[in-house]
């Protein structure tokens, strides 16, 4: 790994296909060649008969001609495959559904496992395989990918001494979140999978909370779908949705159509808009990750987590709340800010490095009582154990917003703007630490905007405590 990094200086590692998989059926090397084909029992991307013709739900309504052609070609491909002689790589049936009561059979346990291949030894290391230390595979199967990520984490500590390793893995287990993030695996380019990704992310944010370890807060999915062809509408919506996931990536199978945002002009524009919001909120997300790593809290959070006594929010799948119809034309994702909170922001620039070195802004959403609070955590962004940190508390109420910092990390980026929503009437005076702010103040329908504060905070937005008041 060190040698590879010397030639290609990468920043992190993506671990794919790290499950305990095998193209064998049962134990490898037993001489049962008919059970152990070299080729898997399914077509690989790009092979004859493996062309992807599937499209998202409703594609035929907006692309009737193309959908009809795809349907015809798919039928022709299926017919050709059926007419062909059975391939030499066909797998001999291995699964036996019989279970003997009282007899331990780890390949076919007496409880139901929805394994697509039936017997657990089909295309995976057999559960009854014995490790060198005598441990049976059945008892440690789920730890394989978990320990690969552990080993990768330790290796990256050697390559980047004192720095936080960045790893994304597919095969994880309870507690893996302390070493790596997780993405949702090979999903499909369907609206149903976009919908499912929400509950998947919420589940992983809690998964693995054992013995004080956190879940896997760094989670995302293959945006726009992995298997099957995506289309303009699905990819438009999905690029917007995933912008608010911790891990954000568009990725698909080789044999499907290209689905990068630039393939469709509307998707590119919707992505730019959503990404700008995401990048502006990186300080807020970073603060959530700080608490995830120190307290086991969540980054993506189910409504029921915030409102545990509301029975309408119990379902982690639907997240229903109150059903309200709101405008959401293609290219627009409605984003709401909960009243009573202060969100720290920085400029949405081209890279995260540029954004974290830009001026600060605060977005204050007052509650019905005119109050709000929030925090931002700041450090060097890279050290495994930062030598200096900064935690800034924000408190709003009675026509004032206070900022109070704790810690020794020095952030020299100035405060540029403060936007306060929920101000009942246009104020006659705005002051910062008692000094009147004359320029850059505007009021529009309960929203007070104060801009141009860089000069007053030139030593850094949090270099000293301050109070912004309006009356």
UniProtKB/TrEMBL annotation:
Keyword Hydrolase appears in the UniProt entry: yes
GO molecular function, one term: alpha-1,4-glucosidase activity
Residues of the Glycoside hydrolase family 31 TIM barrel domain: 4-288
Record EC number: 3.2.1.20
Reaction catalysis annotation: Hydrolysis of terminal, non-reducing (1->4)-linked alpha-D-glucose residues with release of alpha-D-glucose
Entries under Gene3D superfamilies matching the protein: Glycosidases, Golgi alpha-mannosidase II
Protein name, per record: alpha-glucosidase
Native source species: Friedmanniomyces endolithicus
